[in-house]
Amino acid sequence: MSFVEIERSDGVMVVRMNRPDRLNALGKDLRAQLAAVWVEFRDSRNLEVAVLTGTGRAFCAGEDMKESVQQEKTGEAVAARRREDDIYRAGSLEKPVIVAVNGFAMGGGFHLVERADLRVAVRGAVFESSEAKRWLLGGYDHGYSGGLPHAVATELAFAFRFTAERLHELGWINRVVESDQLMPTAREMAAHLLTLPPACRVNTLIMMRAMRARVPDNLERLAARLRNHGAKSDLMESRKAFVEKRRPSFKGWDDPRDRYSTPHLEE
Predict the structure, then answer these.
(1) Which long-range contacts does 7-10 make (Cβ < 8 Å, 24+ apart)?
(2) How far apart are CA 150 and CA 241, in angstroms?
(3) Which H/E stretch holds residue 176?
(4) Residues spanned by CATH 3.90.226.10 within the chain?
(5) For tag attachment on the chain, is the N or C end more exposed, with fewer CB atoms within 10 Å?
(6) Regarding the domain delimited by 4-210, which CATH topology (the fold level of the hierarchy) does it fall under?
């Protein structure tokens, strides 16, 4: 079954996630199909700009929790492998991507928006960086790489929800439009990119991506330690509670004394 629809015309590839009954949740098949589409886009001599969007009332709800619980499989090694298998998520796709956010963009869906070079969203679209709900460390890096004020980055890291309007005010989204103008606006932006000299488009893309903020190595080392500080059983408990529509029962730490030995930044 195909969960991705593709349109190819005039140098533009429109990639549409099409799993509306699951809010375009990133199950194994959808992830694999998206990864294959990005390879086609990269290798094409006729397609230079992509527009990524979704069908239904969500852009992408992120991880398919039901599938994760059924497989009893979670962990950062899995998440890392998923990124490496997808050249878009890995950041190695050297062609511009515009996201047209038609609705909810949560968790992994938020990441898909974040990775894009240009962002358009419908009014009222809701965004959430969900790591704080599913892992042992919240999404500390999103606000940093997005150039957001520290207080806002903290709010994002703790999985508070944001509207498209607020993210537009903060400069994180380029355009906020009515629903019937979403794809026309994204296509207009793509058409503009295609009017530029080809080398300029490629070189400017590489330069702008190189200027994106990156979390310093010493903070990444602290993050690696914090990701392992706590009961790993809570990772699956959060997913099971979501699927079963109940309040989670978290353990916190395997050894209660660990609560008082939290890793800190090395001096």
Answers:
(1) 8/46, 8/47, 10/191, 10/194
(2) 31
(3) strand 175-177
(4) 4-210
(5) C
(6) 2-enoyl-CoA Hydratase; Chain A, domain 1 (3.90.226)
Sign of CA dihedral 162, 15, 34, 189: negative
Distances (CA, A) of 53 to 19, 22, 50, 93, 108: 12, 15, 10, 17, 14
pTM, to two decimals: 0.94
Reading the chain (267 residues) residue by residue, the pLDDT tens digits are 899 999 999 999 999 999 999 999 999 999 999 999 999 999 999 999 999 999 999 999 999 999 999 988 654 444 544 555 899 999 999 999 999 999 999 999 999 999 999 999 999 999 999 999 999 999 999 999 999 999 999 999 999 999 999 999 999 999 999 999 999 999 999 999 999 999 999 999 999 999 999 999 999 999 999 999 999 999 999 999 999 999 999 999 999 999 999 999 975
Residue carrying structure tokens 């991880």: 63
